[in-house]
Amino acid sequence: MSKNKSSESVKVVVRCRPLNRKEESSGPVGGIVQMDLRLGQVILRNPRASPSEPQKTFTFDAVYDGNSKQRDLYDESVRPLIDSVLAGFNGTIFAYGQTGTGKTYTMQGAWLDPEKRGVIPNAFDHIFTHISRSQSDKQYLVRASYLEIYREEIRDLLDPNHSTTRGLDLRESPETGVYVQDLTSCVCKSIKEIEEVMNVGNQTRVVGATDMNEHSSRSHALFLITVECSQPGPDGRKHIRVGRLNLVDLAGSERQAKTGVHGERLKEAAKINLSLSALGNVISALADGRSGHVPYRDSKLTRLLQDSLGGNAKTVMVATLGPAPAHYDETLTTLRYANRAKNIQNQPKVNEDPKDALLREFQKEIARLKAQLNHRRWRSKQKKEQVDGEDWGRDSDEEMEDEEEAVETETDDYVKLEEQRLEREKEAITEDQFLLVEEKQKLLGDLRKEQEATEQLTAKYKAMESKLLVGGKNIMDHTNEQQKMLEVKRQEIAEQTRKEREIQQQMLVQDEETVELRETFTSLQQEVEAKTKKLKKLYSKLQCIKAEIKDMNDEHVGSRQELEQTQNELTRELKFKYLIIENFIPPEEKNKIMNRLTFDPEEDQWNFQPLVPAQSKFSQMKKRPTSAVGYKRPISQYARVAIAMGAHSRFRAENIMFLELDMCPPNPSSLDCLAEAATNQTPSQENSPTKNRDIHKSSSWCQSSKSIPFSSSNNSLAACPAALAKGQ
Ligand code: ADP
Ligand code: MG
């Protein structure tokens, strides 16, 4: 499978945007970032440090200052990567940096201004221009998907219902590596179509931005392009190469905790920043090379970029910086990460003939539809035999010739011929006087159906075939030869500049190491001078390294403090939860819940096991245990004992029921007399018939509370069973 097993490092380029209007107006301090474009170096000045303190220098594959053009960055640093994708490699470009430093500008830019179009639109042009210029024996299939990671949830931006549905899951297969399950992918046949896909996704993101505060700056956006190319190999068989390109616009890398947020906001911020710190950890682990474990699983972003960082993809990281003195710390952190990322080694390889190539399926489907069309043609010829009867002998020869020609003609011609022939048949049937009317109708109906089916099949065939792009077809519409030459020259120049810079960098390193060793000294004085110079150089280097160590220490202290703060918040939260659990959830219930909990390391979360075991899926649910048996409401053990002992009436849960009452059944005369009395005066509580009604009511409660231990109060109730029976 693999063509190229050699490893190559992640390409890291740095871009610094110009000072914006607000920064310019805030003072004449100027930028803190200087760039040596020839050597690919960034020199960072600490605005808080004394002028004598040495400045920090970082070297990268390429650097772009505020005056750099989008096109230069593309031609020099991105074009080779896209070429690799077109050759069947996996490729990733991601922009990393503080919010507002130009990540989105670099990745997308201003679409309408040709000078300001970013990496993504330039990549679209590049891919489709390449296809149109390639040889005609190549077939291409281009697909695009668009997703975002928001709060550790993967959302499909091409799915109109993405905001209502659950986040998508990540899966891993040995063939394709990590992929997103059920992600929408759109087949694109032109630059216009792929731009449309991008617009649809961007609009969905914009909707999110208005719904949620600062949404867009808090989500990572990934635009995925899959280019499948089929080409006949030396063995005569068609071989398919699949290149996958990830274009990633990360969320800002500012530290949320620094802004002093607390409680829920802190937790949210911790979650949002999780993927960025996980990305930092992955970069550190890979760059370090010593630690065996790379924490890809710590976040969705790092899992998606698993192939791009230390995997089989070619990767370009664009680190973006702001030149303002106020962001010195963030700029330094970005530069440190970028510097570390240079050491990551990938093992890019060509994806040749993967099992899941969609192009192969499309080709098979087209072949099947073609065969079906041929078969249909043969069948309609048979039909004609039946309709034309004796005329068949004469027509059959013509038909045969027709057919032979049709095999060679394009589908369009065939459809026309077919339509004409069917029309002729239709007329022949209508004119045939000897056929019965019903038979005619039937045949006409059959013919119509046949015609419709053929049309449907042809439309399907055409639709299927139009999805595939054939190399060389549109060469004339795209560009003339001169333009092509111009582009080639521009590429060559970019390549040349890159090589030059590489050589310059190598020379610089070698100079430092060897020049002084080779020097010969004519006099002692000269030697002393040379050695002093060297000593001074080494001393300044030592100072640099010391400053670096101090910075690192400061950074560690800072991040430790942040972590401690988060830990304190979380501990407080935990104590609060414990308090609730300990005081309000009975221990046996707590144990039951604990026993049902299982941890899913894949998803990194706790899950509830279903109450009904999976094997007895169809059996009845367990019955809910009855609570407070025999009582109207839950009652404490203490109260039960108190009731049993006949203590204070406060503990008689059902105290209305247990009132000591006069249980003798009322006789009709006394009732009459009482009714009379009722009209004159309010009856006393003790003797009123309502009292009896109370007894009736409470008797039913008493019946249900069989397990209640008899207290002195309900002894009297039990002593009057007749009254109770009557009450019922
Ligand atoms: P991010 O995506 O990193 O948060 P943006 O790409 O949105 O930042 O950039 C913030 C602002 O800075 C935008 O107005 C953008 O036009 C401007 N900007 C960024 N980079 C450049 C550049 N290289 N040249 C000119 N303007 C830039
Ligand atoms: Mg942005």
From TrEMBL:
Residues 698-715 have a biased composition (Low complexity). Residues 678-690 have a biased composition (Polar residues). It comes from the Eukaryota. Keywords: ATP-binding, Coiled coil, Cytoplasm, Cytoskeleton, Microtubule, Motor protein, Nucleotide-binding. Residues 377-413, 677-715 are annotated as: Disordered. GO terms for molecular function: ATP binding; ATP hydrolysis activity; microtubule binding; microtubule motor activity. This is Kinesin-like protein. The lineage of its organism: Eukaryota, Metazoa, Chordata, Craniata, Vertebrata. Residues 383-395 have a biased composition (Basic and acidic residues). GO terms for biological process: cilium assembly; microtubule-based movement. PANTHER family: CENTROMERE PROTEIN E (PTHR47968), KINESIN-LIKE PROTEIN (PTHR47968:SF76).
